[in-house]
């Protein structure tokens, strides 16, 4: 009787999970369908649910209207630079808050957490003024530098380091004559690679999809990121949704590849965070 109830419970649970997965994946499938069909298919009744043969032609139209590969390269530079900087600086700060003792530690950490409750839109004007004063408008560093550290990243690394690295290991490193920098690079980093993967994926995806701030500070088309370039496809006299969705589809591919590469570390980090040692 108990086995039957467990089987029914698991069947219902898996059905719900599969239903949720299909709902989540459908927008991506629909985006692919539109990107492979001509424009008139978007408003057809009944709508098309099978791929067409226009994927290459629609992408050629994208290339004819925007510098797709130039914008792609800009997005790669910005996303990679911010992600690497975030991993370095947030892990250093997280290690300091988790394992070091210094005056004002709790107050400073609370102040950092408080910034997470401030809407980012409130910082647009002062950030724009600073970037203008520095003469960084229409340069990629106007997007890279302000995003090199995040309050969430510091919080995430602090919590992970605090739980994953025993104090005895740090003390053993000190007894062997290791400096704090050597402890960080030789002891801490190898043990927090799953946390690196999780924060890296979240940061990379967030920066890759960022639209508002790059739109404000990057006016020159030569420094447009991919999201701004794709947005300009809407400015044509007649909106070609097949072309727009084709550009969006190819802009999504790098994110999918990044997630697939680091998926194992991402899941490992979540599992370790959910299970107390």
Protein model, in words:
It is a multi-pass membrane protein. This is Sugar ABC transporter ATP-binding protein. It is found in: Cell membrane. With 277 residues, this protein is an all-alpha fold. It has a domain of 170 residues: MetI-like (MetI-like fold, Orthogonal Bundle), CATH 1.10.3720. Helix 1 packs antiparallel against helix 13, helix 2 crosses helix 13 and helix 4 crosses helix 7. It is globular. The two termini are 35 Å apart. The model has no long low-confidence stretch (mean pLDDT 86).
Give the second-level CATH assignment, the architecture of the domain at 66-235: Orthogonal Bundle
Q: Can you tell me the CATH superfamily of the domain at 66-235?
A: MetI-like
Rg over alpha carbons: 23 Å
Strand content: under 5%
Helix content: over 70%
The helix/strand series, from N terminus to C terminus, equals HHHHHHHHHHHHH
Cα separation of the termini? 35 Å
Q: What's the CATH first level of the domain at 66-235? A: Mainly Alpha
Task: Give me the secondary-structure category.
Answer: mainly alpha
Mean pLDDT: 86
> How would you describe the shape?
globular
Low-confidence stretches: none
Query: In total, how many beta strands?
Result: 0
Largest pleated sheet: none
Tally the helices: what do you get?
Answer: 13
CATH topology of the domain at 66-235: MetI-like fold
Family: Belongs to the binding-protein-dependent transport system permease family.
InterPro entries: MetI-like (IPR000515), MetI-like_sf (IPR035906)
Domain ABC transmembrane type-1: 72-262
Main location: membrane
């Amino acid at each position: 009787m108990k086995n039957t109830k467990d089987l029914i419970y698991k069947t219902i649970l898996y059905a719900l999970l599969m239903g949720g997965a299909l709902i989540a994946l459908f927008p991506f499938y629909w985006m692919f369908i539109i990107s492979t069909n001509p424009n008139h298919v978007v408003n057809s009744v009944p709508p098309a649910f099978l791929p067409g043969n226009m994927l290459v032609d629609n992408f050629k139209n994208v290339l004819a209207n925007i510098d797709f590969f130039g914008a792609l390269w800009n997005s790669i530079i910005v996303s990679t630079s911010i992600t690497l900087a975030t991993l370095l600086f947030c892990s250093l700060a997280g290690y300091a808050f988790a394992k070091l003792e210094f005056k004002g530690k709790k107050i400073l950490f609370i102040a950092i957490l408080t910034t997470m409750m401030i809407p980012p839109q409130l910082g647009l004007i002062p950030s724009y003024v600073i970037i203008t004063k520095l003469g960084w408008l229409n340069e990629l560093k106007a997007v890279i530098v302000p995003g090199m550290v995040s309050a969430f990243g510091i919080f995430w690394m602090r919590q992970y380091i605090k739980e994953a690295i025993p104090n005895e290991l740090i003390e053993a490193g000190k007894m062997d004559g290791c400096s704090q920098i050597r402890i960080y690079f030789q002891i801490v980093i190898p043990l927090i690679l799953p946390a690196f993967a999780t924060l890296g994926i979240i940061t990379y995806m967030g920066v890759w999809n960022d639209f508002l701030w790059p739109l404000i500070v990057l006016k020159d088309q030569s420094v447009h990121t991919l999201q701004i370039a794709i947005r300009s496809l809407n400015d044509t006299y007649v909106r070609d949704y097949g072309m727009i969705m084709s550009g969006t589809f190819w802009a999504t591919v790098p994110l999918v590849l990044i997630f697939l590469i680091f998926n194992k570390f991402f899941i490992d980090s979540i599992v370790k965070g959910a299970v107390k040692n």
